[in-house]
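INTERNAL AUDIT FORM
Audit reference: QA-55
Scope: verify that the stored structure record matches its stored sequence.
Auditor: D.O.
Record contents follow.
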Amino acid sequence: MKIKIEFVGYLDIKGVKDNSWINIEEPLSISEFLIVHNINRDNQKYLIATINKKIVPLTYILCDLDELFLHLPVGGG
């Protein structure tokens, strides 16, 4: 299964290059994918995920040709 992954520069996903297509062997949730790449569940609570430009929960199961974008919320005041 092939997915595209993009993430903002300050995220570090081990073994994954930003804006690249990668192969995964089996269907995984976004959360499971992140655990495989050393981002634990405690740190995942700060991430926002979109699939094909729609916000989805981290429990979303990745599908072939999905485009996953990960970012952190931005706030200010």
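Auditor finding: record pair retrieved intact. The beta strands are 2-7, 20-23, 48-51, 54-56, 67-71.
Action required: none
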